[in-house]
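## tool: complex_structure
## caller: assistant
## args:
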Amino acid sequence: MHPYGAARPILHKKWTAHSGAPRLLGLPGRDGLIELIGRIRRIGKTVPSTKPTLSRYLFACMTNDQPTPLSPAAIAALRELVGAENVIVGGDELLVYECDAYTIEKQLPHAVVLPKNTAEVAAVVRLCAKWGVPFIPRGAGTSLSGTVLAVTGGVMIALTRMNRVLEVDYRNRRALVEAGCVNAWITQAVKGRGLYYAPDPSSQSACTIGGNVATNSGGPHTLKYGVTTNHVLGFEFVLPDGEVCWLGTRPDGGEEVDGYDLRGVVIGSEGMFGIVTRVLVQLTRAPQSFKTMMGVFESVDAASQTVSDIIAAGIVPGAMEMMDQLITQAVEAAYHFGFPLDAGAVLIIELDGLAAGLERQADRVQEICRQNGAREVRLARTEAERLELWKCRKRAFGAIGRLSPNFLTQDGVVPRSQLPAIMRYIRACSERHGLRIPNVFHAGDGNIHPLILYDEREPDQVRRALLAGHEILEQCIALGGSASGEHGIGVEKIDFMARQFSPDDLAAMRTVRRVFDPAQRCNPHKMFPGSKRCADFAPRKQAAA
Amino acid sequence: MTAASPPAPFLDPAKSMACIHCGLCLASCPTYLETGNENDSPRGRIYLMRALQDGRLAPGDSTARHLDLCLGCRACEAVCPSGVQYGELLEHTREHLEQNYSRPLAQQFLRRIAIEKVFPFPERLELALLPAWIVKGLRLEWLLPKFAREALALLPAGPDPAPLPEFCPAPAPARERVGFVSGCVMSVLFGGTNAASARLLNDAGCDVVTPGDQGCCGALFAHGGQLDAARACARRNIAAFERHQLSTIVINAAGCGSTLKEYGALLRDDPDWAERARRFSARVRDLTEVLPRPTAGPTPPTAADARVTYHDACHLAHAQRITRQPRDLVRAVAGDRFVELPEADVCCGSAGSYNLTEPAMAGRLQRRKIENILKTGAKTVVTSNPGCLLQIRAGLLKAGARDVEAIHIADYLDRGPR
Ligand SMILES: Cc1cc2nc3c(=O)[nH]c(=O)nc-3n(C[C@H](O)[C@H](O)[C@H](O)COP(=O)(O)OP(=O)(O)OC[C@H]3O[C@@H](n4cnc5c(N)ncnc54)[C@H](O)[C@@H]3O)c2cc1C
Ligand code: SF4
Ligand code: SF4
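## result:
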């Protein structure tokens, strides 16, 4: 593992079978890091840099909290750079950029720019640096924690026009893609050759690789295959002063990395260190065969016990996903797969690998399910049925739209053994606040996703939803887990940072951040306690979410 | 941003709130793929619609631009996990804009006169196209300005108006008696395709009834936000088909098919017609839903590289969710020569009258489609909508790909073995 791989505590995603629980290791001192990054910059440099000077730093610190609306000259300069149709400044057109998939907080950016290549990204970033204006990288805006929120306005740089798969190197099983490339497109491009890109967030049909890198996304198959950081070899990166560098393995090089391998520091940094523009991803050979099962249980407890027993039996399934009764009903209403409406919990278990051996494992899994009182274990018989099952699981979030106008997705982690306890707590919480809370989650990782249903047109419901969310995450921490599994901190989880990390840890994280972004203009006011909140935190009188 | 007091409700609150802003629809939206601007995406457009509804925005040029640029292809609807009925939201918003926002004059003219007064009437369409065909016949295209040349490229060489007789009996005693919707553009430009469809239905054991008093399905009106005009079309057709005893009503144009299947929703609030419309819509089927798979087995390959591919018409794949049946039919004839088209279900830019109102975006999507077709190396592109056929043929011509044909699925099946 590279020197700082483990030093991203909160950014570290799930508790995976092979990566263990998040760990807090000491960070090197600030000076050491600055020195180190300086060296990396020199190595990866492709654009002449102007060294950050103290006066620039102070100026930026002073200005970064009060961005003035862009002047006509500034807007003209942006238009000149990327073309008029790729600069959005009109209030009505900015509206949709006021939030991501986390819709409780909203704030308009001053402009949205849609660059076409790395040079344009760097040029826009340099202009922002010159003006001392904050900028916010944006992919597809599917984040669930408000991490693309323009808290104090600024220039949003959306990579949606940089969306190509550039090259596939079949021999070395790698693909070079632009940061705005949609996750699922990589697999689409290479599946004819028996390969795929393994990290599969449920939003994979829309979210971008750049966003995945920034949030270190995982998915159902994280249990066996790991998260984004395990599959990204290197990337091109625009630093907040406009300098372009390459971190990690280069597309034309071998596995080795010159100097320190800093890609792990940036993966999971939630767009606060700079902008990823091109990514070299590792492709994985598609498993020879699958056995995908659906187990129907009377209770979440029984299903959770099954999950623990399967792992204890030494079996590592590709995925183990659980849906409780409420979400199963919603999914069934949406997709008519044939889920039982009265079951306490449904467990989706997927085994993959060489066809030999798989049969025996599947028998063993079915046996464990039955021992735990499974009412039924159904094996997907055809590939079409398997895909249908996954479609239901991956679109489960969305099916919620049929139950309620708004929902707040929480994202917590508990040790697997505490799953029944946290589910009981959530049920009680739901009753206490008079809000429905369906659950669909990565059971194998202990990563829960309670979906708190509310209607934003009723302020009291919003208040109760936020409260319930808080209480559940508190309980996750109390049970020995954490308040963020895979959706990131953004603006949503800021308050939990102080609870989960000591002041020293937080200071160390801030130090790392300043090394990349001394002026703190890159996606500001996220993640750290004490950050500025949106003026507009209370839901306003409108329903546009 | 222009704040305004909220207008009278034009969106069904439950239906507009069904969008949870998840963004899963983004990557399937053709216009967003092209511009990368979220205002040109389903999520962005729904946000604009709601902002109009809530009075956060007044109807203005940029809002209208982004809503006009929507193809109405409904790819977003097919992928939305939350079941958002985008097509309906769009129609209601467009109706609201029609009444509360005035477009530049040239656009008004194109929309009001050319599209809504000519297209839906086969006789007028034929008359209007006469000069165009003469120009084309005499090869005088070069005399015309560029935009007119491009519009002309969309036209087939001449009219093909072999009207179907009102009754086409099946050869053997019929298994079923089906109604046939002949369509406006289909009957003028693709009469041969209608005849082929009737033959296929006959062979499948169906008597085919094509009521002479049917009219335009109303799709162009509905998509343009002229809901009352669309309702009038619906009533006329329902009445025309009610006069016959029919098990099924068959249509071979995807665009019309999706509108016919939505008569129930269109006339929901009309007490005299709601039930009749619902019953009508319940009987409508696309041709590919009713045809049995040819049993003769694939034709032996003719040329070394006679690959065949299939383009999903938006209103078949997204609005009606029919993707498997047409592929099965084509595959039954083409066998191993069938190849999947990359981005098969991304709109070709035809989208009803879109290529006339939004020529620039239509052109970009046309190019994208043609590039994908050429990538497959196929020499035959099969599809199931007249608009797509014209758009793809014109695109192939522009790209100089004279050896690639675009053909309606009925014609393709008709010339193959049964
Ligand atoms: C229905 C649904 C299901 C989801 N399921 C999962 C899941 O299973 N697993 C999971 O991990 N997440 C999940 N998410 C959350 C979200 O999809 C992921 O976090 C995803 O990686 C975000 O990608 P994006 O392109 O939408 O990025 P955005 O939302 O646009 O941005 C997210 C963050 O990345 C930064 N960023 C974006 N692009 C760049 C770039 N090029 N360079 C630097 N920073 C950048 C932004 O500044 C922001 O901080 C889900 C979301 C939804 C709506
Ligand atoms: S339309 Fe559907 S898929 Fe698109 S953002 Fe809304 S809910 Fe999500
Ligand atoms: S109908 Fe088509 S063009 Fe319009 S928003 Fe939906 S996907 Fe995009």
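## assistant note: Chain A touches chain B through 47 residues (CB under 8 Å). The mean pLDDT of chain A is 85. Handing back to user.
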